[in-house]
């Protein structure tokens, strides 16, 4: 995942929009995608903050012990049959 834009850049971009510069022109000036700008504006309106959400490592949904139990059960359920000659 690419790194988040700096808060300084976000502040400058949102200030330019607040001054009345068209969003498309602001995106071209700062080399930013229009969708990113809309997301920043939406986040500012909803939360009052334009900072990036925290990124981190997600917890595993399945633990290693659950994986081992499942793989053992699966292995035990498979029956190996000899090949038949035609």
Provide an overview of this structure.
The protein has four helices and no strands. The chain is mainly α. The longest helix has 14 residues, at 34-47. It has a domain at 7-47. The chain has helices at 7-18, 23-30, 34-47, 64-77. The mean pLDDT is 84. Helix 1 (7-18) runs antiparallel to helix 2.
Structural class: mainly alpha
Relative strand content: under 5%
The SSE order reads: HHHH
Q: How many E strands?
A: 0
Distance between the termini: 53 Å
Can you give the helix content as a percent range?
55-70%
Uncertain runs are none
Whole-number average pLDDT? Answer: 84
General form: elongated
Largest sheet: none
Question: Gyration radius, to the nearest Å?
Answer: 26 Å
**Helix count?**
4
Please outline the helices and strands:
Layout: H1 7-18, H2 23-30, H3 34-47, H4 64-77
Helix pairs in contact: 1-2
Properties at a glance:
single chain, 86 residues, mainly alpha, 4 helices, elongated
Summary, kept brief:
Helices cover 56% and strands 0% of the residues. By secondary structure, the protein is mainly alpha-helical.
